[in-house]
Write a sequence for this structure.
């Protein structure tokens, strides 16, 4: 019995050294690497956290129900796309081609 347990213990010992390699990926559902990330809260304060995805900054959404009517309207207006203003300039065209006919040589 003791010999059998000793034989099983010897079989379970692995020889791990710098010469051994693995040709496959790590089979983990959650990886250990965490990335430094800045979380911006709705009031503008920031917190440094460690996040599982490599992101630089995370901005938390603002609760519009806690704002006053004026602030809510200004925030909603800022979300809408701005209309592009087209500036139409009228250029005075007083070019007279007959004035320059004397400089053109006819063959």
């Amino acid at each position: 019995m003791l010999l059998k347990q000793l034989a099983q213990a010897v079989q379970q010992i692995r020889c791990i050294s710098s010469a051994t390699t693995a040709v496959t990926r790590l089979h983990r559902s959650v990886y250990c690497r965490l990335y430094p990330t800045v979380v911006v809260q709705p009031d503008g304060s920031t917190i440094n956290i460690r996040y599982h995805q490599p992101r630089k900054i995370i901005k938390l959404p603002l609760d519009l129900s806690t704002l006053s009517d004026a602030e809510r309207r200004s925030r909603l207006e800022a979300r809408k796309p701005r209309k592009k203003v087209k500036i139409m300039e009228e250029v005075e065209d007083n070019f007279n081609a007959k004035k320059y006919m004397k400089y053109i040589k006819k063959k």
Q: What stands out?
A: Residues 32-61 form one domain. Strands lie at 35-40, 46-51, 57-59.
